[in-house]
UniProtKB/TrEMBL annotation:
SUPFAM superfamilies: Prefoldin (SSF46579)
Entry's Gene Ontology cellular component terms: mediator complex
Keywords from the named record: Coiled coil
A GO molecular-function descriptor: transcription corepressor activity
Coiled coil: 101-128
Family matches, as InterPro entries: Prefoldin, Prefoldin_subunit_alpha, UXT
UniProt lineage: Eukaryota, Metazoa, Ecdysozoa, Arthropoda, Hexapoda
Sequence similarity: Belongs to the UXT family.
Keyword ATP-binding recorded: no
Gene3D superfamilies the record matches: 1.10.287.370
GO biological process: negative regulation of transcription by RNA polymerase II; positive regulation of transcription by RNA polymerase II
The organism's place on the tree of life at top rank: Eukaryota
Name by which UniProt lists this protein: Protein UXT like protein
Length: 146
């Protein structure tokens, strides 16, 4: 095989391994983080809905709080009608439960759109990898029906 072709094949393989597969791993990591965020918001939404349906928001409730290293203490929340939500950059704002549900629904929609965009980016990167592999096969003269 021609040394120039071997060099091109090596460059393509290096690009796949060093750039595209690394990009794919980063995108997958971001996707997992966004999915975890959505799950957390859905769980919070469920808790708020349960509070509203059982009137716990007015009567309060008892719970156990993890103070670190799986050590729990019992806590009593006398008024659960308001909640603090992280709005970003470590800032928390107090909302009523109804207001919190509106904010949570907006955040879930935003995260779902980001997930769609990440999935498209992952598909695009996978397509680039496949395209380069086809080009490598063409250069090697071993192209089969794909």
């Amino acid at each position: 095989m021609d040394p120039q072709i071997k060099e091109k094949i090596l460059q393509f393989e290096t690009f796949i391994n060093d750039v595209l597969k690394e990009d794919l791993a980063k995108l997958a990591e971001k996707l997992n983080a966004k999915n975890a965020d959505v799950a957390e918001f859905l769980q919070l939404k469920s808790v708020i809905t349960t509070f509203q349906n059982t009137n716990v928001e007015k009567t309060g409730f008892k719970t156990k709080v993890d103070i670190g290293n799986n050590f729990f203490i019992q806590a009593h929340v006398p008024d659960a009608s308001k909640i603090l939500l992280d709005v970003g950059l470590g800032h928390y704002i107090e909302f009523t439960l109804d207001e919190a549900l509106v904010i949570i629904n907006i955040r879930i929609k935003l995260l779902e759109q980001q997930i769609v965009n990440l999935r498209k980016a992952i598909a695009r990167t996978n397509a680039h990898i496949k395209l380069i592999l086809i080009a490598i096969r063409d250069l090697q003269g071993m192209r089969e029906n794909v």
